[in-house]
UniProtKB/TrEMBL annotation:
The gene is ppdK. Gene3D superfamilies: 1.20.80.30, ATP-grasp fold, A domain, ATP-grasp fold, B domain, Phosphoenolpyruvate-binding domains, Phosphohistidine domain, Pyruvate Phosphate Dikinase, domain 2. The active site is at H490, C865. Its EC number is 2.7.9.1. NCBIfam families: pyru_phos_dikin (TIGR01828). Substrate binds at R596, R652, E779, G800, T801, N802, D803. This is Pyruvate, phosphate dikinase. SUPFAM superfamilies: Glutathione synthetase ATP-binding domain-like, Phosphoenolpyruvate/pyruvate domain, Phosphohistidine domain. Its cofactor is Mg(2+). Residues 457-538 form the PEP-utilising enzyme mobile domain. One of its GO terms (molecular function) is metal ion binding. Residues 27-62, 72-392 form the Pyruvate phosphate dikinase AMP/ATP-binding domain.
């Protein structure tokens, strides 16, 4: 029997201190819906409403509009009746109309990525009723014209697609302003607004061939289904892709009674944060606008005022506004609506305590009544993430493990990069001052359009204001500059979430899109000019500014110490130079997991000797050239051992195919011939001889050391001599010699024999010894398969997951870039396997290699030194496979430390 009545609840109501759902139901109700339910239940005044679940979004995508509306009808009708009762208004009533808002809300916040429609329920009759009821005709007509504009854009497909499209509604507005010689929307008369409504409806009819819907139910279903559609819109798809959110999460739809911040000067709307989202400082802060709707604050059209007096004073100092002007023109909410402020301050404290994290809230004051529209855990910079977690821990709100689990490890990267050396900035180079919306130091060439953010290598995207369509460009640009908008503008919020430097609300910057330039007090900057942004001070600076190492805050050190307390794996670094080794050590590296010796051969004279070795046609000739390389290698190793004093240092023998060291252009080959006093023909014929069709699977790795044993002998000599030299100076070196690209036991054994014999010769000559070990990389699938046999002879394993991925997938590391992006866009791969370890496939070889190796030698030391060693998901995988250490580039060492701690905590809690 066919049933049309739903068996499961699709609609969850909230309001009047009650709720059907609760805060734990994020997956079903979306983040916003779950929080609205939770807020209502704990007594926060939220406008009553209901949430249509994320499951309905999936049903909608599978079954289509008609079926789903059929499923929803009864539940939604009942929920609307409930709102009517609570608000004392009536849906569809012309004298006392209830107006509704419809908003998206996925389980994670995706600011601005999906659609919203406000003021639903208005039509030609209801607008008159609303005007009468509120005694504010202007407000009623302004709401109506906003509604038509928004609804037509979102539901009827009339949103401009790109910067070149003219927004037909804005065009009408601009024409009317011109005709009436006015500049601001607020200067429109009631008659003007009525004319706009008439013209808007006319345009809609002409463009779409449809009448603007007057039936509130038709409006409501149109808006609900448009929100579902926006889940698969271009903006949301891109956002999901960069964050890796799956399509089947779906979005919920939140339908709520409208409350109005634009009902006059006793009304206001704003956004606030319980702590500073940029620095993490524990100060309540935010922005508001009197007589405005919420979108006005985030869209950055009017520069908003500060909520607290302290914030307002700080803002005035930056904006160079006198205290008298500040009080008169830009007073804080605390000063002009003290009672409302007190109430809001109470709620922000309640909400932060309830959610035990920094909250980002939206509120509206409608004729002296405060409503909280939403709350969510606020997006924050890396610095704020660390400080807030440490502070909350010290305040006793969260535990040590919670503080650690709150880290998004990759965000720590923001703290480690250079900052401007402000001492080197000349006062006259400071072009203008904006708001320090998102910290960081960005230098780049100016572009004015988001879709041109990739035009130069480093760009600064300068906009009057940004909108959600600009996300991709914001992500690409090095820094964002906006002329309008405050600390909570779209640009500021998105930039902070991405850890991108942003200076907002720089009012002195006059942007001219048409001529691709901006001007500040007569100084003109064209597209392509270099400027710098200091996101921590709000300075906009002419030209490039030198940078210096960041000073890591106390909280950073505290989080790192906690990570070290909980993690079980060690964290090493991949470093080829003493400088990298030192940097990594300051970031907490506990040794080197990979020194790629080949990189040392490219510098200065070394490349000449290296080429001499490669071009030599006899063993004697090669040995002669290697004698020149020996002292250079020894010197490098000494310096690295010294930087890593007392810590293990894994040095890998020469790995890449030799053709990489010889130039491929004829002119450069001639130079090589001249330098080595040989014929050009000798060089070109060697190049031809070295040519391989598959160099990645060719004559490289231990295959080199086994065909030219003298290379291994030279490298082993350099390593052992360097360690002995240091021993003499009282510095402890702990060399681990690593053989690359092993696929059979015999080729490892042959290399081991050469290394051991060489070492014994050096020891005999020097009449001294040191301890060292010999291990291998596991980076060829065959090595993982026979790991039990290799382990019988190896002191350690290190998974080279770069090559292991290459050979397991059969994707060339050097060529896969051509199709990996396309594969990801088409959904054929969820991520780049060279970036995030493929746990399902390549991971099996890691698991097997470690297990089989340890079956032979239970205490075998096992690590990883492929790029995955610093990627948080892959680090967690290594923890689960009980690896002894991960090794990664110096700047990822702190990320790996935290990721390793999180993996250990997750295991404890499972
Ligand atoms: C690897 O293959 O993972 C590795 C670390 O070595 P390389 O990247 O130098 O080939
Ligand atoms: Mg490799």
């Amino acid at each position: 029997m066919e049933t049309l009545t739903p068996v499961k609840a699709r609609v969850f109501k909230f309001g009047n201190k009650q709720a059907d759902g609760n805060g734990t139901m994020r997956n079903l109700l979306g983040g916003k819906g779950a929080n609205l339910a939770e807020m209502s239940a704990i007594g926060i005044p939220v406008p009553p409403g209901f949430t249509i679940t994320t499951e309905v979004c999936t049903e909608y995508n599978d079954l289509g509009k008609e079926t789903v509306v059929g499923y929803l009808k009864d539940e939604v009708t009942e929920a609307v009746r409930e709102i009517e009762m609570q608000m004392g208004t009536k849906w569809g009533d012309t004298n006392n109309p209830l107006l509704l808002s419809v908003r998206s809300g996925a389980r994670v916040s995706m600011p601005g990525m999906m659609d919203t429609v406000l003021n639903l329920g208005l039509n030609d009759e209801a607008v008159i009723g609303l005007a009468k009821k509120t005694g504010n005709e202007r407000f009623a007509w302004d709401s109506y014209r906003r509604f038509i504009q928004m609804y037509a854009g979102v539901v009827m497909g009339m949103k401009p697609e790109s910067k070149d499209d003219v927004d037909p509604f804005e065009e009408v507005i601009d024409n009317l302003k011109e005709k009436r010689h006015i500049e601001l929307d607020t200067q429109f008369t009631v008659q003007d607004l009525q004319d706009l409504v008439f013209d808007f409806k006319d345009i809609i009819n002409k463009r779409t061939g449809r009448q603007f819907p007057t039936d509130p139910w038709e409006q409501l279903w149109g808006a609900v289904t448009a929100v579902f559609d926006s889940w698969n819109g271009a903006r949301a798809l891109y956002y999901r892709k960069i964050h890796g959110y799956p399509a089947d999460w779906g979005t919920a739809v939140n339908v709520q009674a409208m409350v109005f911040g634009n009902m006059g000067n006793d009304s206001a709307t704003g956004v606030c944060f319980t702590r500073d989202a940029g620095s993490g400082e524990n100060v309540f802060n935010g922005e508001y606008l009197i007589n405005a709707q919420g979108e006005d604050v985030v869209a950055g059209v009017r520069t908003p005022q500060q909520i607290t007096k302290l914030g307002s004073q700080r803002w005035a100092e930056l904006a160079q506004v006198s205290e008298a002007d500040r009080k008169k023109e830009y007073p804080s909410l605390e000063e002009i609506m003290p009672e409302m402020y007190q109430e809001l301050d109470g709620y922000q404290k309640t909400l932060e305590a309830h959610y035990r994290d920094m909250q980002d809230m939206e509120f509206t004051i409608q004729k002296g009544k405060l409503w909280i529209l939403q709350t969510r855990n606020g997006k924050r910079t890396g610095a704020a993430m660390v400080k807030i977690a440490v502070d909350l821990m010290k305040e006793g709100v969260i535990s040590e493990t919670e503080a650690l689990m709150r880290m998004e490890p990759n965000k720590l990267d923001e703290l480690l990069h250079p900052v401007f050396d402000t001492k080197t900035i000349n006062q006259e180079d400071i072009i203008a001052q904006g708001l320090p919306a998102s910290p960081g130091a960005a230098t780049g060439q100016v572009v004015f359009f988001a879709d041109e953010a990739g035009k130069y290598k480093n760009t600064i995207l300068a906009r009057i204001e940004t909108s959600p369509e600009d996300l991709e460009g914001i992500n690409i640009a090095k820094g964002i500059l906006t002329a309008r908008g405050g600390m909570t503008s779209h640009a500021a919020v998105v930039a902070r979430g991405l850890g991108k430097c942003c200076v907002s609300g720089a009012g002195a910057v006059k942007i001219d899109y048409k001529n691709r330039k901006f001007e500040v007090d007569g100084r003109v900057f064209q597209e392509g000019d270099w400027i710098s942004l200091n996101g921590s001070t709000g300075n906009i600076i002419d030209g490039k500014v030198p940078t210096k190492e960041p000073e890591l805050s106390g909280e950073f050190g505290e989080i790192m110490a906690l990570a070290d307390k909980y993690r079980k794996m060690q964290v090493r670094t991949n470093a080829d130079t003493p400088k990298d080794s030192k940097v990594a050590r300051t970031f907490g590296a506990e040794g080197i997991g990979l020194t790629r010796t080949e990189h040392m051969f490219f510098e200065g004279d070394r490349i000449v000797a290296m080429r001499e070795m490669i071009l030599a046609s006899t063993e004697k000739g090669r040995k002669k050239a290697l004698t020149k390389l020996l002292p250079m290698q020894r010197g490098d190793f000494e310096a690295i051992f010294e930087a890593m004093e007392g810590l293990p240092v894994t040095i890998r023998l020469l790995d890449p195919p030799l053709h990489e060291f010889i130039p491929h252009q004829l002119a450069a080959q001639k130079e090589v011939a001249d330098q080595l006093h040989i014929s050009v023909a000798a060089v070109t014929s060697k190049v031809a001889e070295l040519h391989e069709f598959n160099p990645m699977m060719g004559h490289r790795g231990c295959r080199l050391g086994n065909t030219y044993p003298e290379i291994t002998e030279m490298q082993a000599t350099a390593i052992i001599e360097a360690a002995l030299n240091l021993k003499k100076r009282g510095v402890k070196a702990r060399p681990e010699i690593m053989v690359p690209l092993v696929g059979t036991v015999s080729e490892f054994l042959e290399q081991k024999r050469i290394i051991q014999e060489t070492a014994e010769q050096v020891f005999a000559k020097r009449k001294d010894r040191i301890d060292y070990s010999i291990g291998t990389m596991i980076e060829i699938p065959r090595a993982a398969l026979i790991a039990d046999k290799i382990a019988a002879h190896a002191d350690f394993f290190s998974f080279g997951t770069n090559d292991l991925t290459q050979m397991t997938y059969g994707y060339s590391r050097d060529d896969a870039g051509k199709f990996l992006g396309i594969y990801q866009n088409k959904g054929l791969l969820t991520s780049d396997p060279f970036e995030i370890l493929d746990q399902e496939g390549v991971g099996q070889l890691v698991t097997m290699g470690a297990e089989r190796g340890r079956a032979t030698k239970p205490n075998l030391k096992v690590g990883i030194c492929g790029e995955h060693g610093g990627e948080p998901n892959s680090v967690a995988f290594c923890h689960r496979n009980k690896l002894n250490y991960v090794s990664c580039s110096p700047f990822r060492v702190p990320i790996a430390r935290v990721a390793a701690a999180q993996a250990a905590i997750a295991e404890e809690q499972a």
